[in-house]
Amino acid sequence: MTSPAASLSAVRVPKWAFAVSLLGLIVTYLVLQENGLALGASSELLHEFFHDGRHALGVPCH
Amino acid sequence: MTTYSSLALRGLAAGGIAGAASALVQLLVTEIPLRAALAVEQAREPAGDGHAHSHGEEEVVSRGVQVVGGMLGVVIVGLAVGLVFATAYALSKRWFTERTPFSRSFALGAAVFGAVALLPWLKYPANPPAVGDPETVDHRTALYLGVVVAGLAIVWGASLLADRLRAQSQPVRVTGVLLAVVAAVAVVLMAFPAPPDTIPADVPVAVLWQFRLSSLAQLATLYVGLGVVFGLLVDPATRRARAGRVAGSPA
């Protein structure tokens, strides 16, 4: 796994970094893909509010 | 000394800037075919089946709010992706380790663009409003996410393969990785089913393609822009050059 040149990028990645990344993925999902699975009825409002962005970034919208 | 939190903050900043640039492309470029597509959708209304979005009820959100909300959404996605990007950058121990931080970030941004934007765009091109059967949206979303995951797996596999071929000369290594990526992309494009929805006849081809190319331009601005801005923020050479110029300028 580790390459000889790994010392160049010797950044210690703490455990909470994965929580932060997960948060990033969840936010991305809520903005781009939420179709009622996670938020139920209020996703309709979210869907319409971010409507143009969803189309523009090419995700399936409706 | 670089810490993860400093990288994460730069990821947020770079994501915000790239997201804002992408939102600007949306306002100036993508909104033009999007408006044309909405006009097509509106022209259908008297015919019966109503507005596909509001499911027969009154509009939940006005057009003006949708334009601003859409841009805000792109900026939020930029911030979120920036955080994930910074984490991936911090973890990428074998990603072009001999290069400068700027070229590592730029290459990572370009690879992410290929995996999560260009590949899904090739298989399931972006569609404007007036295209898309609401009944198939869950199916299409699953297919779309499947291609995104496959794209990320290809990038991951390419970095593993490049590491495995470390003993080879650079031309052999690059050719090997390139062949493997092309083969994997071909397999993904053939293995996933064709887009389930047909394009309605009343959607002009010019509008469709203008929309698809605008969408691709916006995705490139977001992901490649993220790689470039993050690279500028993490590479010490950026600050050194500026410091040198300031020191050298007349008082």
Automatic annotation (TrEMBL), chain A:
Superkingdom of the organism of origin: Bacteria
Entry's transmembrane regions: 16-32
Pfam families found in the cross-reference section: CbtB
Keywords: Membrane, Transmembrane, Transmembrane helix
The keyword Membrane is assigned to this record: yes
Protein known as: Probable cobalt transporter subunit (CbtB)
Annotated organism of origin: Lentzea jiangxiensis
From TrEMBL, chain B:
Keywords noted in UniProt: Membrane, Transmembrane, Transmembrane helix
UniProt superkingdom: Bacteria
Bilayer-crossing regions: 7-29, 67-90, 102-122, 142-162, 174-195, 215-234
Keyword Transmembrane helix: yes
Signal peptide: none
Stored InterPro entries: CbtA_put (IPR012666)
Name the record gives this protein: Probable cobalt transporter subunit (CbtA)
Organism: Lentzea xinjiangensis
